[in-house]
Amino acid sequence: MFPFDYVRPTGLAEAVAAYGQDGDPRYLAGGQSLLGALKLRLASPSALIDIARLPELRGIRRDGDMLVVGAASTHAEMAEGVEIAALAELAGSIGDLQVRNMGTLGGSLANNDPAGDHAAGVLGLGAEIRTDRRVIPADAFFVGMFETALEPGEVIVEIAYPLPRRAGYAKVRNPASGYPVVGVFVAETYIGMRVAVTGAGACVFRLPEFEDALSHEFSPAALAGLMVPADDLNRDLHATAEYRAHLIGVLARRAVEGCGGRS
Fold first, then answer.
1. Which of 15, 48, 79, 185 has the smallest number of Cβ neighbours within 10 A?
2. CATH architecture of 1-53
């Protein structure tokens, strides 16, 4: 690693003030991606600002027809504590036990790995990303590979998920990392049908044709014959673009089959 300072603020305002100091600081939440990059010398921040224990970023609560999850909530806490069954199952499928106990929702979203599970849940449910400055709708948050709408120094405080009528998540898991080779989140929400795909492209994306089909008939059969072009999908040692295109259709049908209500 390159040398860096370590700052552990006691509140959100203190963390934001620390980020405003000279140098090139980074916020540290669970550290599951950032610490690996530091070890490989792929990142060289001047300081790490540890926000994992900030009280403003903790907790899971119901607020009317929204489920609000603090950005520093771990995957394990979400797997046990959220009332949207598909979201709990998604969180419980991430990585291994250590990753689930350390990794955080906000850290995963800010990193925006092309194969991040939480991105599918956030986009699939049409959630709001609430920061220390503004509210960003899910459809505007994910910009590209490892790129989001967050501005320098902006902190994700909490994520507000609309409670769906029903939702399901299915993925093919990389046996080594636990990342989805492809994952598909399907949700029937109060503002319409949503289908989000992770692991297949530069970042999470929606499938309007699948959404339209499910809006007319919510069943796996409604998706028969629908195909996703392989041209812009990922190709790597884990899967070809053509195989990922095939998996999207298969997993979308499985997600529909597994759809349930909030409990």
1. 79
2. 2-Layer Sandwich (3.30)
Token duo for residue 62: 């119901």
Long-range contacts of 72-80 (CB under 8 A, 24+ apart): 72/29, 72/104, 72/105, 72/106, 73/104, 73/105, 74/30, 74/100, 74/101, 74/102, 74/103, 74/104, 74/105, 75/99, 75/100, 75/101, 75/103, 75/104, 75/105, 75/108, 75/118, 76/100, 76/101, 78/105
Residue that the structure tokens 């994306």 belong to? 205
Residue 105 CA to residue 123 CA, distance in Å, equals 13
Place of tokens 């989140």: 185
User: 248 near 182, Cβ under 8 Å?
Assistant: yes
The model's pLDDT over 131-147, given as tens digits with 9 standing for 90+, comes to 999 999 999 999 999 99
DSSP state of 104: B
8 Cβ neighbours under 8 A, 6+ residues apart: 50, 53
pTM above 0.85, yes or no: yes
CA distance 28 to 50: 5
pLDDT at 32: 84
How do residues 105-128 score in pLDDT, each as one tens digit? 999 999 999 999 999 999 999 999
Question: In the CATH scheme, what is the code of domain 166-257?
Answer: 3.30.390.50
How do the domains of the chain map onto residue ranges? 1-53, 166-257
Rounded Cα–Cα distance for residues 234 and 10 (Å)? 41
> 67-86, pLDDT tens digit by residue?
999 999 999 999 999 999 99
